[in-house]
Amino acid sequence: MTNDIFIFAEQRNDKLHPAALQIVTPAKALAEKTGGQVVACVIGDAIDNAATAIDKAGVERIITISDPSLAMYSALRYRTALTAAVQKVDPKVTLLPATFMGRDLSPRVAVRTKAALATDVIELQINDGGALDVVRPIYNGKATCHVTLPADRPAIASVRPNTFAAPSGAGGAQREALSFEPASGDERIDVKEIAKTGGDIKDVTEADIIVSGGRALKNEDNFKILFDLAKELDAAVGASRAACDAGYQPHTRQVGLTGKTVTPKLYFAFGISGAIQHMAGMRGSKVIVAVNTDPEAPMFRVADYGIVADLFKVVPLLTAEIKKLER
Amino acid sequence: MKILVVVKQVPDSTTVIRIGSDGKDIDRAGVKMVVNPFDEFAIEQAVRLRETRSDVESITALIVGPAQAAEALRTVLAVGANDAIHLEDQAFDQLDDLQTAALIAAVVKAGGYDLVLAGKQEIDLDSGQLGPALAELLDIPHVGVVTKLEFADDGKSLVANRRIEGADEVVQVSLPALITCEKGLGEMRYPSLPNLMKAKKKPVRKLTAADVPGFAEATAGVGGSTMHTLEPPPERPPGKILDGEPDEAVRELVRLLREEAKAI
Question: Which residue in the set B133, B184, B231 is minimally distant from A107, CB to CB?
């Protein structure tokens, strides 16, 4: 086992996932402590732009595995490719973004490399015994726990998106290409197509800003004012479970326990009282704004900024005010 | 076709979480325990497949947990599992997620299951490790976070919609395979009282560590993480309520979001 810190630089269509850049920050901090290098691995087909993007984040070495059969994500092919790269570097710690891909892939690679694994972590450090010590939310953010991974075997962690800011660096990392050697049986998974959901508007799991509405919106048509605001902010539109169950928005936009967990930089809750299930999905947002006619709404207790007023008055005013800004 | 459904018993989602005095677990006194909500989609999906296909031979439910976990098994049996496996031993409490997957793999490896269904994650520890790890240990493909599941025309493979950022991956996967279930699949039917009574008579195989050949070797080969020191979530600093008429409040909000929070 080397002292290197390895990161999986997730990309799709040669575009790096923002969370892949963010994990370079904790990787550098860990490498400083272990004295090793930060090694990034990009997997896909025709991935030059993604490799260049991760180079600019200031990693020291880049391994690319490019093959037409890796053009789309497959849990089997990607685990085979990533395992090969991890075994070549033999790092002390491997980090992945805790995205749909990272969460899907990390347990398989952990088993294959006989590593220990912690998922969705928000703090990482090497403790005095040389072991990786992480903090992760549990019970849907109602508590956190420390997890210590054994010092005598490789450690893998997936890191919650938007926990760390992306760094910048000089570029010029040493690059090497590995050829992809499929394992037998890798063809058992075949991605047929990527079917876009939700039209032109961003998904809540990929937007920096989310504009969410609750049952107080009263019907589907009224959500239009949230879409107007979202357009100005380049934001996604989310909804509470109550609003989705009432049919105002599809469940793909639902934020909360049985919906999606989101950690955007800015979260607007319009007419969402703040049921425990909803809070579970958005409590990790950096900045929270609540607008509600009920001053006792629990959402005001987690909000950074609150306006006690009718959302139907506030939202159009806010949209107009944002339009005025030179962005 | 034999189907295996892996379930976990977890505190109800509305539980107020208090940290226990040793800081290593939550205070479990009076906490209502339920079937993990994402595992509910798994058992329902298994029962629907049996209802729509003639070739589903059996549905077996499996749980790792203390004696109390038998209640969760009874729910799943009442919903439609034919039989169950209950892995109960103090030694199992010490296992991390990867080691639990290794334990389950050791138990079911020779079981000849064609389809393994599980929830996308557990709502207590939220790790989501079990499904993909179990698939790797069983050397079968998996599709994670599935919202729609159908048999392909060949009858030997599945077509699954897997949720990703802003899209669905439509994935064809050959059997045997493991699927982790997400909302979008059918909601679990209510276990009726007569079915709960009948569930009492369905066979439950109880296994301890001594009943699992190779338990020590299987679980020593992976994982080994230790969870400790639970803490309440980081406090959010008290927020500001912006007073005044809506237009004044909105102007102030935009100013604060720009200048103070630097969020827009």
Answer: B133
Chain-chain contact of A195 with B170 (C-beta, under 8 angstroms): yes
Is pLDDT of A195 > 60? yes
Provide the β-strand partners of residue A45: none
Interfacial A residues in 261-300 facing B (CB < 8 Å):
265-266, 276-277, 280, 283, 286-290, 295, 300
Q: Are A209 and A266 in contact (CB under 8 A)?
A: yes
Tokens of B141: 């493909």
Low-confidence stretches of chain B (pLDDT < 50) are none
Its pTM stands at 0.91
H or E stretch at A175: strand A174-178
Cβ of A137 and B228 within 8 Å?
Answer: no
Residue A327 has pLDDT above 70, yes or no: no
Q: Does A323 touch chain B (CB under 8 A)?
A: no
Cα atoms in the Cβ-side hemisphere of radius 13 Å centred on A170: 5
- Chain A residues whose CB is inside 8 A of the B118 CB are none
The residue ranges of every structural domain in chain B are 2-220, 234-264
Q: For residue A167, what is the DSSP state? A: P
Among chain B residues, the shortest Cα distance to A318 is held by B250
Strand pairing of A11-12 and A15-16?
Answer: antiparallel
Q: Specify the pairing of strand A209-213 against strand A266-270.
A: parallel
Could you give the ipTM of this predicted complex?
A: 0.93
Domains of chain A: 5-188 (3.40.50.620), 209-324 (3.40.50.1220)
Kindly state whether B194 is in contact with chain A, defined as any CB-CB distance less than 8 angstroms. no
Chain A residues within 8 A of B240 when measuring between CB atoms: 304-306
Report the distance separating Cα A154 and Cα B223, nearest Å. 9
The C-alpha of B190 sits at a distance from chain A's nearest C-alpha, in angstroms, of 18
pLDDT tops 80 at residue A160: yes
Contact at 8 Å (CB) between A90 and A3? no
Which ranges in A135-220 belong to alpha helices (H)?
none
Q: Please name the fold of domain B2-220.
A: Rossmann fold (3.40.50)
Cis peptide before A18 (omega within 30 of 0): no
CA A96 – CA A118 distance, rounded (Å): 11
